Amino acid sequence: MVESNHAGYTGSGFVNYDNVSGGYVEWTVNAAQAGSAALTFRYANGTTVNRPMTITVNGTPVATGKAFNGTGGWTSWTTAGLDATLRAGANTVRATATTANGGPNVDHLSVDAGTTPPQPGTTPVGINGQLTVCGTKLCNRYGKPIQLRGMSSHGTQWYPQCLTNGSLDALAKDWNADVLRVSTYVQEGGYETDPARFTALAHSLIEQATARGMYVIVDWHMLDPGDPNANTARAKTFFSEIAGRHKGKNNVLYEIANEPSGVSWSRIKKYAETMIPHIRAIDGDAPVLVGTRAWSSLGMSEDGTESEVVNNPVNASNIMYTFHFYAASHGQEYLNTLSRAAERIPMFVTEFGTQDYAGEGANDFTMSQKYLDLMASKKISWVNWNFSDDWRSGAVFKDGTCNAGGPWTGTSSLKPAGVWIRDRIRSADNFPTS
Predict the structure, then answer these.
(1) Pairing relationship of beta strands 179-185 and 149-152 according to DSSP bridges
(2) How large is the greatest C-alpha to C-alpha distance in the chain, in angstroms?
(3) pLDDT tens-place string over residues 82-139
(4) Are 353 and 394 in contact (CB under 8 A)?
(5) Catalytic residue among 207, 255, 259, 306
(6) Which end of the chain is more exposed for a tag (fewer CB within 10 A), N or C?
(7) Are the C-beta atoms of 204 and 243 separated by less than 8 Å?
(8) Which of 207, 255, 308, 351 is catalytic?
(9) pLDDT tens digit string along 335-380?
(10) Burial of 36 by CB count in 10 Å (0-12 exposed, 13-18 middle, 19+ buried)?
(11) What CA–CA distance (Å, rounded) separates 42 from 399?
(12) pTM across the whole model
């Protein structure tokens, strides 16, 4: 019901939720253009009990159990905010109570249209345009080899709260990142549990990276089972929807199998030669990144070598092969393998950490720097794991940063690995144009 019996509201009144789960308030928001926006709810909760709500935009949840804590009285008003992606034109925003206490008293919703668009020609995408694989290198629209450097999200089923308007602004403008890897887990509570939700979340993050002039790697994060062929049908559906919407963009790269394991290279190659034509039939321009055997170690972690790929490459053009390393676990032998492979086939390091293979434990910055020096010398692009506040030492943010909404810029909220990798991403790019 609409009431006006508690002072401090704006306009002619506020909405008082019924004391039931499932009650909701809905707004229609008209956006001049598609893009990220900050949604801010003004509310009062005169109890001492949180009255959480689920916030959806155009039917897709963007926050589940969003906290609306007690404000000290029904005349004490405060705000709760979150970031979401709006489409051009009409959007439906709904706030639904999730407990028997119902929702708080809600005064209004305000919408801020998000990030200031970057100046043309000043961002990684603005400078380099559509990327292609030329020989063993990733090349820009001028045919010049370049190196991209950036961050990977953690699984979007666990840490979407770390991928906000503010954090992505910081990644693009404070960290000066060139690329964001969007990791959509297939299992582990990911895509298979709710394909529509995780596809919509990937769409949103691609749009947000695009708005900031960054490249984006669409990571099909298959992990267990280790044979990518186990999820071919799901992969075809996912990449059909992603490519269908974003085929007109010049900043998308498709990573079709994160970390194959316990499976032969011939099986991985078979999967790649199924998926690449499927994607190319929709989006013929974007580079495709192919995972390698043994958790994308070129077979090293299962007693193989790069020769299995070098001698039996995937039958496709405009592709690169992926290599993952964790410096405290993968030492000189792995580094040498990457170095040899990069002389023969196009390589892209789509995931690495400065810790052990689980992203835990002490940082080995000395070995990590050896890898970075090699990758700089050979123009091997790289993405660090991971842009979240996971408890592990490999997550860049300190615990609790994401739920607190930052701070996102500077180093006060970063773990040692975050400080180290931010400093190296921030160093000047070398993007030749002539």
Answers:
(1) parallel
(2) 77
(3) 888 888 778 999 999 999 999 999 998 888 765 566 666 789 999 999 999 999 999 9
(4) yes
(5) 259
(6) C
(7) no
(8) 351
(9) 999 999 999 999 999 999 999 999 999 999 999 999 999 999 999 9
(10) buried
(11) 27
(12) 0.77
